[in-house]
Input
Amino acid sequence: MSDIPLLLGHRGARAFTSIPENSFASFDLAIEQGCDGFEFDVRLTGCGRALVCHNPKIGSVTVSRARANQLRDLPQLEEVIERYGNRVFLDIELKVRGLEPKVLAALRNYRPQRDHVVSSFIPDVVLELKTRSAAIPLGIICEKRAQLARWPGLPVEYVIAHESLVDEHLIAEVRKARRRLFIWTVNDRNGMLRAAKWGVEGIISDETELLVNTLRPKLD
Output
């Protein structure tokens, strides 16, 4: 994983809609296609499980109210870290508050041997994690200018910015602060080439096959 930028699947290989996003099959496909790792989402169930899913509701079940006998077919955070933490880069996105002790326990019990980051849109989650563990690598996710304006005051190593927010000025500011910049979600070839030319540290994409073929084409 010495190649820069890191090529990361968004919720796995999300463009392949025949495979559920945030699933083992989707993660495996992103890796098989040549990605360095993947981003995935974590929510807290009503019974206290750290469940891998993006949406607050799955079918008729609200995740935050889910009981132990519900949503059992979805991966749990611990399973993903145990299965992939020694193989690829993991971007663990916490969608809600309350997961902080769960993710720290999982990282303690299944210590990843590869680099990883715990990220969130929620500044309070980032601050709580840093209070609990000074060593954990953290990232703030930004989709709007107002969110982006907060990153310099947060204890993060990674700024994970939406493609629409990234320009040469932001790259210079992040680099000056000695942080790492990931850009999401880059789904077209020109955007991938531009991000790589800018020298960002990571590119997150739904189009994992296109991402790898664009930036690391196989030599015949």
Summary: The chain has a mean pLDDT of 96. The chain has one domain: 6-215. The CA atoms of residues 91 and 146 lie 23 Å apart. The first strand starts at residue 6 and ends at 10.
